[in-house]
Amino acid sequence: MKHILALVLGLAGSMAAAEDMKMAVTTSFNNSGLAEILLPAIAEDTGINVQLLVVGTGQALRLGEGGDVDAVLVHARAAEEAFVEAGYGTHRREIMYNDFVYIGPSDDPAAIAQADTAADVLVRIAQTESVFVSRGDDSGTHKKELSLWDTAGVQRGGDWYRPVGAGMGASLNTAAGMNAYILADRASWLNFGNKGDLALLFAGDPVLFNQYAYLPVNPERHPHVKTDLVVQLEEWLTSPRAAELINGYTINGETLFTYNAQPES
Amino acid sequence: MGEIWQGLVAGLWLVVTMDADLVNITLRSLQVTLSAVVIASAIGLPFGAWLAIRRFRHRRTTIALLNALMGLPPVVVGLVVYLLLSRSGPFGVFGLLFTPTAMIIAQVIIITPLIASIAHQAVRDLWAEYHDLLLSFSTTKRQRIMTLLWDGRRALMTASLAGFGRAIGEVGAIMIVGGNIDNATRVLTTAIALETGKGDFALALGLGFVLIGLAIAVNIATHMIGRTESEGKW
Amino acid sequence: MVKPILPLTMKGGVIKRRGKILLGPVDFTVSAQGFTIVMGPNGAGKTTLLRALHGLEKLAAGRVDWQVPVADTLQRQAFVFQTPIMLRRSVRDNLAYPLILHGMPKAQAHAMAADWAARVGLGAALDQQAPRLSGGEKQKLALARALMRNPDIVFLDEPCASLDGRATREIETILKTAQADGTRILMSTHDIGQAKRLASDIVFLMHGQIIETAQAQAFFNAPKTRQAAALLKGEIVE
Q: What ipTM score was computed for the predicted complex, to two decimals?
């Protein structure tokens, strides 16, 4: 009994460690595997232990609004700007981008590999009524998909359109199970272990680029936020060292992220 | 079938090599759940016993409510605890969200009704058996409760174990209030959910087998403690 | 000199359960000496009478009085139930339980438990779990547990109802010894033979009422009531 109580107290004690900060990131960022490169380097260079909360973009921004994290790293520009506008974040700092890709059955019944644009891909899928899995979870990836449908200007819905309301990995699992088309970020796709009969069929349209930005939570709203650590982390994320690690990260020889942070204006 | 086999192999490999992450995650699972079981037992066992012995006005309603609370959906408990502990919630100042303490709180809420309910049944049956004898010995109320708790300790241990079983395998609530933070709040169940999300079924299954093994080991250990105590004759 | 707690009297005692009268009104005195057997058909109220005298039943009317305040009698009376109630503990712990409960040091209680277990033939079973004993062994254990505190009076509710001949004889021997040592005994039974072997006097109950009390010899030779005569002849009494 005493031992167990000691364990509980020990847990409570370890929570008070000074150099921990919490950052909400998107599932796709975490699934990329980049975090496993960056976090140890951050700890080594700055002594900050960044605790990641891996959630969808929608929830990541809610965590920032509620003051439950110290900073947010997401990829949904309009929502990010609204977040700063409303005073929840101090500012928005672009760090890097990666890209979205279309995944589908390797025999490609909708022939999207021959499409000209990202929107054209969706037109082809809608015309052939090929099964398409949508994240349907208000995440950055989901928002990107919806804006692409708007650009394509075709009706979606019906049996072939399947919003699953799940994270990237779970949605890819679903797509693999149904042998369906899906929009995914490149990193999640490359790191995904259960590819089944799926293949990468379309990529490269600039509209598919996916900009990540860093949002410090506003200490005026939430005085407990660890602003000094947040500032240190931002300095690190925009440093040459970060640039080197981010640009140098590859999976199967493929570069995933392009560093594009601007010097402070 | 192939994947289950791979999972078993992966799980065995993790255990044999004492994988550092696995040990870390497993210890945290145990810490969180054992803490929750100790706290929930400290509340639930005496409360269950008290319900069995005391006669009061709303006793039946209380018992019905207790039984209903056993079916609390963990996800809802998680969400409510989340909203309470969030910085913008009523208990935000304590900064408990996304800490093991938050996970313990959620698990205590989930398993206390279960433990209290099983304890109530066990003590009620024993009290029916002992009632006349303890009255004939002119025992005090305190002596009665102590006798019932002691002689019913095996059933009460079963109650705590049931709580342990429910808590160790729970994922919905602790995912929400713990956040599955690597090295801080990641436990076996949330790690399994994570690996499944990555499509790494072998590792997910491996962790799953470790979880099952852990549950069995704790049950057997508790059983053996119980046996030694009663010198193996009962 | 400790003040005697007997005689025990019940005046106008009534016991009800769910509005139905189980016993009474009954006027009855338990004298200071003797081995009283309570007889009567099933449902006559034998168990209820014993339980009421011991304080296990709430009186709907009337009163039960000892020669001293009831609080002072609690340690000086004991009850043996028809189905022995065994604590889920060893034989030793079952015997020691009431002793320790009332302040006897553990070592002394255990020594006394061992002594009494030997007296009732359970010396070899000290470490066995009581609920695992046979019916006869359980009842002997219950009897030892009642007698070892040297009570002034013991109530027994059909203690041999489900026992074989050998166990019954052992119990009767223990009871006779206890009576010889000065313990007042009040016991119910169905068994006319047992009543003849043990009783110094008889209380005969029907429908919750005492309809006859008599010296044992007088009762068996010349019952005063028709119902008692019928019972002794082996007829069904209702």
A: 0.91
